[in-house]
Each structure stands twice: as C-alpha cells, then as structure tokens.
Amino acid sequence: MTIDWQAFTPWASLAGGALIGGAAALLVLFNGRIAGISGVLGGLLRPARGDVGWRVAFLAGLIAAPVLVAVFARVPEVRIDASGALLVLAGLLVGVGTRYGAGCTSGHGVCGLSRLSPRSLVATLTFMAAGFGTVFVLRHAAVL
Amino acid sequence: MRLVTAWLAGLVFGCGLILSGMASPAKVLGFLDIAGAWDPSLALVMAGAIAVGLVAFAWAARRPVTLLGDAMALPAVRRIDRRLVGGSLLFGVGWGLAGFCPGPALVALGMGLPKAAVFVVAMLAGMGVFELLERRRGR
Questions:
Q1: Distance between CA B57 and CA B10 in Å, rounded?
Q2: Which domain holds residue A74?
Q3: Percent of chain B, pLDDT > 70?
Q4: For a FRET experiment, which of A53, A71, B22, B48 has its CA 20 to 30 Å from that of B31?
Q5: Is residue A23 part of a domain?
Q6: Apex A36 CA angle, A33 and A39, nearest 5
C-alpha cells in the first residue's frame, strides 16, 4: 500500500467531518431525526402527513451549501470521471441498495456508528468492502 | 422553527462534505482504491464526524423528547438480515462504480454539475423501484 500524500488532506477532512457530525447533532437534538441522506430523500417517495417539511428543508440546505461555501472560500474542485452510462448504473444501484439496506454512508456510517448500532456496523463494513472490491476490479483486475 | 433547524442541519452537512473534499467522486475513489495510490482522507472525515456524533447521540439517547419538545424518531430496528447486507452490497458496488453516495451527489447537484444530475435522477429511479417492489410485496 502506498499513501498518496499529495492528495491526503488530513486537517480539512477532520474539520469537514466534525461539521458533518455537528449537522447530525443538530438534526437529532432539534428534530429527533437521523441525518441519513438516503433515508431523508427516500422518505419523500412515501410521503406522510407532517413528515415532508423537515425532509425538504434539510435537502434544500444540503443543495444550497455550495453557494454558502463559495461566499467564504474557494470551493474545492469536484471531479466526476465516470461516463454517463456508468453514472446511470451507479445511481440505480445506490438508489435500490440504500433503501433495501436502510441507509448509506451518513445514516449507517456516521449516525449509526455514533449510536454504536451493531446493525449499522454490519452495513458499513459491507458497503465499504463492496466499494473497495469494485474499485479494485475496475482499476487493477484486467478481467473486464 | 423545526424547518429552520432542519434546513441549517442540511446546510452545515453540505458545508462539511465540501470542506472535507468528499463532494468530489475522484477523491472518494482515491480512498476506495487501496491497491493504488491511497488517499486516507475519508477515514478522517468519518473519525471527525463520529467523534462529534458519539457525544450528540449519547445525549439524545438520554432525552425522552427533542430540545423543541417533540418525540424522538430514532430507528428501533435491530435486525441484521439479508435485506440489510444485500442492500448494502448493492450500494457499495454503485458507490465504487462512480464515487458518489447520496449526500455528495446532492451537493454536486447544487453546484449545477450535469453529471451529478444524471446520477441523482438514476438514484431516485432506483429508490422508486424499491417503493414499487415494496408495495407489491405488501399487497
């Protein structure tokens, strides 16, 4: 294993992570909800009375974040190398998978692990392993 | 008030994703590529988030109601089954294919990136497929 020291951003990533944790804290303490993006979004496809507003507000804040960051700082470059077809396939898998798995990197990875949930630990280890495996096959296994 | 706190939480979450570098699929894939030139940044994002989260959720778990006086709506499911593992597997494969998970995809959509829009539409379609299959199963 070689570490890419050029790309490694320890302080920005720790600080950004702390902000993500702070956001999850806000949502659980004031709204009593888990800040899991797939769950917040997926719940809108099954709308229930009194359960729509907070979801829309949270997602609106998330989508507005780049505008706020741009006011104070230079927004780091966002690079998407995947082709359109690959993005469609990836999006479908992420959509179906996060709903069956009842969570994603935020819901299971951040909130679930913070709650010391064994269920979230299993989910996080599973999707991490699948992510590592997929990238390995795409980049290093010359079978495709 | 509840809408304001939810909006603020989303805003802070998005700022965290941008600052941490996780809004960029290339950086996420740099973490997932352990056999190549590995970028461990994502591990520190998780560490920072969980350090704060541990305190917050420990506090929340001891409260019967939120700070605004509403009932807590925390997941009570503890089952570890095929749905959980199978779903997480599919999600992980999709994550590894493009480097996008749901949060960063929505933030990149907010940057007006067309490729992020393609991913988000496909992700919503995937979630829609789940809803249809669940409704059929429930009948």
A1: 17
A2: 10-140
A3: 99
A4: A71
A5: yes
A6: 90
Residue A3, domain member (yes or no):
no
Count CB neighbours of B58 within 10 A: 12
Chain A CB contacts of B51 below 8 Å: 17-18, 21
Domain total for chain B? 1
CB A76 within 8 A of CB B18: yes
Q: B-chain residues within 8 Å CB-CB of A35? A: 9, 13
Looking at the 3D structure of chain A, how many domains does it have? Answer: 1
User: Which of A10, A89, A114 minimises the CB distance to B97?
Assistant: A89
Instruction: For residue A4, tell me if it sits in a domain.
Output: no
Indicate the helix (H) or strand (E) that contains A29. Answer: helix A10-31
Contacts of residue B46 in chain A, CB cutoff 8 Å?
17, 109-110, 113
pLDDT class of B9 with cuts at 50, 70, 90? very high
**In-domain check, residue A1:** no
3-state class (DSSP) for residue A115 = coil
Per-residue pLDDT of B102-112, as tens digits, reads: 999 999 999 99
ipTM score assigned to the predicted complex: 0.96
pLDDT band at B139 (very low <50, low <70, confident <90, very high): low
Q: What is the pLDDT of residue B137?
A: 83
Domain, as residue range, for B67 = 2-138
User: Taking CB atoms and an 8 Å limit, are A119 and B84 in contact across chains?
Assistant: yes
- Asked if residue A110 lies in contact with residue B50, where contact means CB atoms within 8 angstroms, the answer is yes
B105/chain A closest Cα distance in angstroms: 9
User: How many contacts does A have with B, using Cβ atoms within 8 A?
Assistant: 502
